[in-house]
Amino acid sequence: MSLDIYAADEQHDHEIDLDRWVLLARGALTDEGVRGLAEVSLIFADEPTIADLNQQFMGKEGSTDVLSFPIDAEPEPTGRVPDAGGSGPGEPPLPEIPQLIGDVVICPAVAGRNAIEHEVSFDDEVALLIVHGVLHLLGWDHVIDDEAERMEARERELLSRHYRASPP
To answer: Within 13 Å of residue 106, how many CA atoms lie on the same side as its CB?
Structure first.
């Protein structure tokens, strides 16, 4: 299994421990059944960047704490398709192509304000946003109350397994 998580810190509001957050995202993805070659991006962005993304893709004004951009895979053709390449007699098999799952973009500046409002630590808020974003990548939603309750329960379960709060 090769689950690659590409992490980038593209903001200067808060110090980010990329390795720690990659481990959390990997744990959540694995527990959700992601197997084989797969790729996810975890990006920590500043407020102008996330506000632009929020406007462009969600049609909403202003910054937000987390956005998820799942990549909807096109169904692959079954059988052998002429001129599609592939291995013929005497050719080595084609390498497995990674499944591109999507991108999670988190804004630490907004997370920091939310942490104060929710009376939790900054790390606790970021951990929740990572798990929340990963679940959105995998099709979880919270539009109706039943879905929201199931998603929140799953977030708590994944956090209890893969996240340890930093000592104060």
So the answer is: 33
Residues 6+ apart with CB under 8 A from 85: 94
- Dump pLDDT digits (tens) for 95-105: 667 788 999 99
**Res 11 pLDDT > 90:** yes
Q: What letters, b where the CB count within 10 A reaches 16 and e where it falls short, cover 45-75? A: bebebbbebbeeeeeeeebbbbbbbeeeeee
Q: H-type helices in 32-121, by residue range?
A: 47-53, 108-118
Distance from CA of residue 21 to its chain's centroid?
10
3-state secondary structure of 29: helix
pLDDT in tens, 45-91: 999 999 999 999 999 999 999 999 998 654 444 444 444 455 555 56
Q: Locate the DSSP E strands across the chain.
A: 3-10, 38-45, 66-70, 99-106
**Within a domain: 92:** no
> From CA 64, how far away is CA 119, in angstroms rounded?
18
CATH number for the domain that contains residue 24: 3.40.390.30
